[in-house]
Design goal:
CATH topology of the largest domain: Umud Fragment, subunit A
Structural class: alpha+beta
Radius of gyration: 28 Å
Bound molecules: zinc ion
Oligomer: single chain
């Protein structure tokens, strides 16, 4: 969305077959809604539709003031919650109750002089069809919809046709597994004063916001920005579920939990644990330790007491691997709270950037209450005398959707008070 005083352009994803019809219908719906919402004359505003260069899936709608120089009329779109007021009025014009989404009994089929048609737009009458734009106009209002307020959900086909980038794959999976339909898509979330905070890819009732994050969101600065936006959303009472397409099960599982629909949780076999005498050690089974036992014993050069042997499939096992459960949210982008994980020891090669289980005499991890933690390891070396290198700063970095988790910094750690115990390999299951 882009605007000067006297013109505004809005870009919409459009249905593939009906791009032109959608865009002109939307243009006249917005004009009509705006005129009612802000008492503008029909002759004061105009609209035009443009292609988006090199992108057939979107159209650009230009709204402009016909007065030379403009009177600042269109500024209302931003200054007075104008988009939502415009969308509400547009829906009413289109014979639809904005709150329930139901159309009135006397509604026309495609367009009439009460809704989209006027004497000024006769050249477009053939293109106009109010049915094409109702869902999108409703999305412009959906943000604070609560269940019961007409939150029956959008049509899956509409949601899929508006999907961009990585969203389609996720949306198809939601539909396939029988998830409820979202009540909003690409919806702008506002703070209490009506100022836009961010956009939600999908919105569910009870202020559940879904973000589908493709590759660019792995970049450091984008992640920081995402974390900040998530914190703001939470302070507004929203709950954010981030779905990474490469970790679909995890994301959909979290969404199922948030929606309180446990039957939609991905089915995970329970951990199969056998006693030592039945285990095929390091062929089919790995020892299960508590993280505390593993950290403590291994850093003293001992073997901890295992709680059993866990059957592991689809993974080449070898001696030194073990299973332990990681509790806490500080690594939740990689390790869901409570996940059983496979670790491997000893840690060979460069430690930088790897997720490690470390033991330290002088700190207590607030999440576990113990002298050990699982974090991304980073160290900076500094030249000492005669070309010898030694560690000066070790950072243990969380990887969490919660920005409250800050890196721990250890200076001049000696080998006695700081030990790297094992490397995190993968999540086994929750
Ligand atoms: Zn009509």
């Amino acid at each position: 969305m882009h605007g000067l005083h006297d013109l505004v352009t809005v870009e919409f994803p459009v249905p593939p077959q009906d791009g032109e019809r959608f865009a002109w219908s939307m243009a006249y719906a917005l004009l009509g809604g705006f005129q009612v919402a802000f008492s503008a004359e029909e002759s004061e505003l105009g609209a035009h539709v443009f292609d988006v260069p090199a992108d057939g899936s979107r159209k650009r709608i230009l709204l402009y003031e016909t007065d030379e120089g403009g009177t600042g009329l269109l500024r209302n779109l931003w200054e007075r919650d104008g988009w939502r007021r415009t969308a509400r009025r547009a829906l009413e014009l289109l014979h639809v109750d904005p709150d329930t989404g139901k159309q009135r009994d006397d509604a026309c089929e495609t367009a009439c002089y009460d809704c989209l048609l006027s004497y000024f737009n006769q050249q477009h009458h053939d293109l106009l069809d109010r049915r094409l734009v109702i869902d999108v106009l409703r999305q412009m209002l959906t943000v604070e919809l609560e269940p019961g307020e007409g939150g029956r959900g959008l049509d899956w086909d509409t949601v899929k046709s508006a999907a961009v980038g990585a969203e389609l794959e996720v949306i198809e999976e939601l539909e396939r597994r029988g998830f409820p339909r979202p009540i909003g898509q690409h919806a702008v979330i506002r703070d209490a004063k009506g100022a836009p905070v961010t956009e939600a890819d999908l919105v569910y009732p009870n202020k559940i916001v879904v973000w589908v994050h493709g590759q660019p969101h792995h970049r450091e600065h984008v992640r920081r920005r995402d974390a900040e936006l998530e914190r703001r959303l939470r302070s507004l009472g929203y709950r954010v579920v981030t779905v990474w397409p490469e970790r679909l099960e995890e994301g959909l599982g979290e969404l199922a939990e948030r929606l309180q629909r446990p039957e939609l949780l991905p089915r995970r076999p329970l951990l199969r644990i056998v006693p030592r005498e039945k285990a095929e050690a390091y062929v089919r089974h790995l020892p299960l330790y508590t993280l505390e036992a593993a950290a403590g014993a291994f850093s003293e050069g001992q073997i901890p007491q295992e709680a059993g042997w866990v059957e592991v499939e689809g993974c080449n096992l070898r001696e030194g691997m073990f299973v332990a459960r990681v509790v806490g949210e500080s690594m939740n982008r990689r390790i869901p709270n409570g996940a059983y994980c496979i670790f491997r020891r000893p840690v060979e090669g460069s430690r930088n950037g790897r997720v490690l289980l470390v033991q330290h005499r002088d700190f207590t991890d607030p999440e576990t209450g113990g002298h050990y933690t699982v974090k991304v390891y980073q160290s900076e070396k500094e030249a000492a005398e005669e070309g010898e290198w030694r560690h000066t700063v070790i950072r243990l970095i969380p990887d969490s959707t919660d920005p409250a988790f800050q890196p721990m910094e250890l200076r001049q750690a000696s080998e006695e008070d700081f030990r790297v115990v094992a490397e995190f390999l993968t999540v086994l299951r929750r």
